[in-house]
């Protein structure tokens, strides 16, 4: 029961209050005294620093939440820590940073810039402000242990944990992909002891890109759209129940850019290449093992497929005892079956100089999704090469070259070679014209009917206009008067 007699009397309350007031005054006096002593002992700017630090520690004591992201959890790498490190590398332009660490790994393209410990980085995500700080402390075993402190207002706790951290994970993956050094894996051998191959990798440093590749503009556009569609279709492939893979057959004469195309594709997709040399594989089992050892987001390349699946010439010592030899059907089964369903984002590329020599099984619909023809150099391809090699978009000699090119088959490789012969654009272009003309003459000799036709269509005033300067004796014909439907002279006349 509540009893009034237990309440303190008014006199008691008053006397307690006066004692408390007297005590507070005493404390204040002591504090003032102490403060004046501190003022005398500790310099003013040092005091400011301490107060700022204390202020930071105790700022919004109740409104701020801090997440700790350790480098390791029970000796296992913490992916969130790694992702944060990578993510914060993209924030190093933050004006609040005073110290940064700069480094460069061998063969990496870019410098790596990371934050120094105790530096604070402010980041914004959907109007939320968060603060990152890398801290370093000795752990129980006396070793340095690193961790990130991620602080923000407590009202955003759900959003930061539920959304922002996932965003950091995703962004860091993208950043790694963007800066990835591409690898070229090819087959190394164990030596005589064992005939099985193993994948060995080196950095892929092929400079070809789709911008430098001279090929039919429409085909190039179609391929790029196809690749873009392919990489976006993870869910689509899942839905329709197909392995997420795509096959391309590149065909065309030597020197038309098939290998350069593969390098350009790898650069565009940022996929590693596995160069599968079938002539060094001797059984279907070995092929399967090698294909299963390839990683996702990669391209398996089999060059000159018409030659590599000819198994007749293989030396007997390579024949597997159990009769398990590499066969075309073994290869196709592997590509269509087990291997392709064991990974994601796989591309397989076959190249050949002779599409007509390929086994129909390779060409049947659905096997290679796209057949891409790499042709001899076209006038449009020549312009791209001239722009790349000579940095010119136009020149009076272009017209003559373009007409010659319509009549003579010349590979982009040969054009590139001619354009590299001199630093002077005109000299290079003249060299190319001389080459095309000599090839035209050779081909006419081996095809007299065409020569006859040519005689009828060449300008009768031919030879009048000798080229001025540089002592060039080339006869300047008015090529445009030729029949536009003239057949190409050397269909298989390679350099
Ligand atoms: N289409 C092209 N565009 C730009 N450069 C090209 C092209 N084709 C060839 N080249 C140049 O010629 C060189 C050789 O070409 P590449 O090796 O790609 O030809 P390929 O078709 O693979 O030949 P092969 O059938 O002999 O393997 C390239 O390094 C490049 O400099
Ligand atoms: Mg090649």
UniProtKB/TrEMBL annotation:
<dbReference type="InterPro" id="IPR003959">
    <property type="entry name" value="ATPase_AAA_core"/>
</dbReference>
<dbReference type="InterPro" id="IPR058017">
    <property type="entry name" value="At3g28540-like_C"/>
</dbReference>
<feature type="region of interest" description="Disordered">
    <location>
        <begin position="441"/>
        <end position="480"/>
    </location>
</feature>
<dbReference type="Pfam" id="PF25568">
    <property type="entry name" value="AAA_lid_At3g28540"/>
</dbReference>
<dbReference type="Pfam" id="PF00004">
    <property type="entry name" value="AAA"/>
</dbReference>
<dbReference type="Pfam" id="PF14363">
    <property type="entry name" value="AAA_assoc"/>
</dbReference>
<feature type="compositionally biased region" description="Basic residues">
    <location>
        <begin position="470"/>
        <end position="480"/>
    </location>
</feature>
<keyword id="KW-0547">Nucleotide-binding</keyword>
<dbReference type="InterPro" id="IPR050747">
    <property type="entry name" value="Mitochondrial_chaperone_BCS1"/>
</dbReference>
<dbReference type="InterPro" id="IPR025753">
    <property type="entry name" value="AAA_N_dom"/>
</dbReference>
<dbReference type="GO" id="GO:0005524">
    <property type="term" value="F:ATP binding"/>
</dbReference>
<dbReference type="InterPro" id="IPR003593">
    <property type="entry name" value="AAA+_ATPase"/>
</dbReference>
<protein>
    <recommendedName>
        <fullName>AAA+ ATPase domain-containing protein</fullName>
    </recommendedName>
</protein>
<feature type="compositionally biased region" description="Basic and acidic residues">
    <location>
        <begin position="456"/>
        <end position="467"/>
    </location>
</feature>
<feature type="domain" description="AAA+ ATPase">
    <location>
        <begin position="244"/>
        <end position="378"/>
    </location>
</feature>
<dbReference type="InterPro" id="IPR027417">
    <property type="entry name" value="P-loop_NTPase"/>
</dbReference>
<dbReference type="InterPro" id="IPR003960">
    <property type="entry name" value="ATPase_AAA_CS"/>
</dbReference>
<keyword id="KW-0067">ATP-binding</keyword>
<keyword id="KW-0460">Magnesium</keyword>
<dbReference type="GO" id="GO:0006950">
    <property type="term" value="P:response to stress"/>
</dbReference>
<comment type="similarity">
    <text>Belongs to the AAA ATPase family. BCS1 subfamily.</text>
</comment>
<dbReference type="GO" id="GO:0016887">
    <property type="term" value="F:ATP hydrolysis activity"/>
</dbReference>
